[in-house]
Amino acid sequence: LLNAAVAQAVEPAQITQHCDSVSLCFSKGLGAPAGAVLAGRRAFVAEAWRVRKLLGGGMRQAGVLAAAARIGLEQAEATLRGDHSNARRFARGIQELQSPLCSVSLPAVETNMVMVAVPGGWPSPAELCAYMRAVSEEELAETGHAVSVLLFPWAAHTLRAVWHRDVSAHDTELALNKLGFVARKCQE
Question: What is the set of domains in the chain, with CATH numbers?
Answer without folding.
Answer: 1-77 (no CATH), 82-186 (3.90.1150.10)
